[in-house]
Amino acid sequence: MGTPLIDLDPTSEVPIYQQIRDRVVEAIAAGTLPVGSALPSVRALAGGFGINTATVAKAYERLRGEGFLRTTSKSGSVVARGPGDPPSPPHVVDDWRARVHTLLAEGHAHGVPDVVAVCREVLAGLAPATREPAEETS
Q1: pLDDT tens digits for 42-77?
Q2: Final residue of a domain: which of 79, 101, 116?
Q3: How far does the chain reach from its first CA to its final CA, in angstroms?
Q4: Are 34 and 82 in contact (CB under 8 A)?
Q5: Which residues contact 123 (CB under 8 A, 6 or more apart)?
Q6: Is 11 contained in some domain?
Q7: Phi, psi (5° rounding) for residue 71?
Q8: Domain for residue 34, yes or no?
Q9: Which residues of 13-51 are buried (b: 16+ CB within 10 A; e: fewer)?
Q10: Considering the domain boundaries, does residue 137 fall inside one?
Q11: 130: pLDDT confidence band, cut at 50, 70 and 90?
């Protein structure tokens, strides 16, 4: 059970709260959760998966801290930013760049034959505003 936008793997080494956070970010990037979309309440999502509400609350808190969600008592948690929005502040971009560095290093260390091709393939599956810009010609 759960929600169509979030698929959790209880046997994964990745903590459940991180899986929730990652699936929401992926749905935002793919355009399936546009800005203003409401997310299920913490209780509803926890109940749907049969997990502790603190786990969902931790995921939502991370998403709020990263600027992806805003929560109000009236509307609950809604998507606050998406691919078409202006770039995030420099500290957010620096943190993201560090995580990309580690992920690419991991792929390289695992012998992924063409890391750049994998990156292009992933980018092609995201919402249009996130796709790599065409190369400039001089």
Answers
A1: 999 999 999 999 999 999 999 999 999 999 888 899
A2: 79
A3: 53
A4: yes
A5: 130, 131, 132
A6: no
A7: -130, 130
A8: yes
A9: eeebbebbbebbebbbbeeebeeebebbebeebbeebeb
A10: no
A11: very low
pLDDT tens-digit readout, 72-129: 888 899 999 998 899 888 988 899 899 999 999 999 999 999 999 999 998 888 867 6
Task: Report yes or no on 30 lying in a domain.
Answer: yes
Report the amino acid identity of residue 23.
R
* Residue range(s) defining the domain that contains residue 107: 90-130
User: Exposure of 119 by Cβ count < 10 A (0-12 exposed, 13-18 middle, 19+ buried)?
Assistant: middle
Of residues 80 and 1, more confidence is placed in 80
- Residue 137: per-residue pLDDT: 43
Question: Would the CA dihedral through 21, 92, 28, 112 be positive or negative?
Answer: negative
CATH number for position 34: 1.10.10.10
Helix ranges, the chain (H): 16-30, 42-49, 53-65, 90-109, 115-124
- Predicted local distance difference test score (pLDDT) of residue 87: 87
Is the model's pLDDT at 39 over the cut of 70? yes
